[in-house]
């Protein structure tokens, strides 16, 4: 008799423990995925970034042409790639599915710069085969523009 009452209990406990373990594992997997996403763009070696241009940058003359030539095909209008637009300042500063891409005053921390320098796997901009990679000079201008407040005038 004692056996019969004991057994179901231990089975019940076993199921509970398994469920607990499954939850724990699911939690770990979710945490890993989140960490991986956050890791995109983290641990960037800023020494690999071309230096910011040492001059005052003119958005209309020097930055907009870069966006127009290399980015706008995919990043404007109502359904931009990655939810990221470069055709309006407010939208550009808001960022996209991966979060904020432009941090005014901090080009070395701005994911957009990491993407155009092609330091973040699968987020090289423009993507492989979709236009020439930006030159060091262009990256330098973008950096200086962000460092100077990412103005739209
Ligand atoms: C041929 C199309 C194409 C061109 C050209 C292009 N991109 Fe992208 N871009 C994409 C796609 C697709 C994604 C989404 C990638 C993903 O989420 O895996 C993306 C994502 C991004 C993101 C991240 C948005 C987010 O939060 O998900 C930024 C920032 C970005 N691009 C900036 C640029 C810049 C700056 C240029 C120009 C120098 C550029 N892109 C050129 C297709 C393009």
Give the count of helical stretches.
5
DSSP strand tally: 0
Radius of gyration: 24 Å
**How many domains comprise the coordinates?**
2
- Give the overall average pLDDT: 86
Helical proportion?
40-55%
Query: Which ligands are bound?
Result: heme C
Question: Multimeric state of these chains?
Answer: single chain
Distance between the termini: 86 Å
User: What is the percentage of strand-forming residues?
Assistant: under 5%
Concise account of the structure shown:
This protein is an all-alpha fold and 153 residues long. Helices cover 48% and strands 0% of the residues.
What does this structure look like?
This protein is mainly α and 153 residues long. The chain folds into two domains: 1-39; 46-147. Helix content is 48%, strand content 0%. The protein has helices at residues 2-39, 59-70, 89-94, 111-116, 136-147. Helix 2 packs across helix 5. The chain is globular, with a radius of gyration of 24 Å. The protein binds heme C (HEC). Heme C (HEC) is lined by residues 70-71, 73-75, 81-84, 95-98, 101, 112, 115-116, 122-123, 125-127, 130-131, 134.
């Amino acid at each position: 008799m004692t056996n019969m009452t004991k057994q179901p209990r231990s089975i019940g406990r076993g199921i509970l423990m398994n469920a607990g373990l499954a939850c724990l594992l699911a939690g770990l997997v979710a945490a890993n995925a989140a960490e991986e996403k956050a890791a995109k763009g983290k641990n960037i070696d800023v020494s690999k970034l071309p230096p910011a241009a040492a001059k005052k940058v003119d958005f209309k003359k020097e930055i907009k042409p870069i966006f127009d030539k290399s980015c706008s095909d995919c990043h404007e209008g109502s359904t931009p790639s990655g939810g990221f637009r470069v055709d309006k300042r407010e939208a550009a500063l808001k960022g996209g599915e991966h979060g904020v891409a432009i941090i005014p005053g901090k080009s070395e921390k701005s994911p957009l710069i990491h993407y155009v320098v092609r330091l973040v796997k699968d987020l090289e901009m423009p993507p492989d085969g979709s236009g020439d990679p930006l030159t060091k000079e262009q990256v330098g201008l973008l950096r200086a523009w962000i460092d100077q407040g990412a103005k739209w005038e």
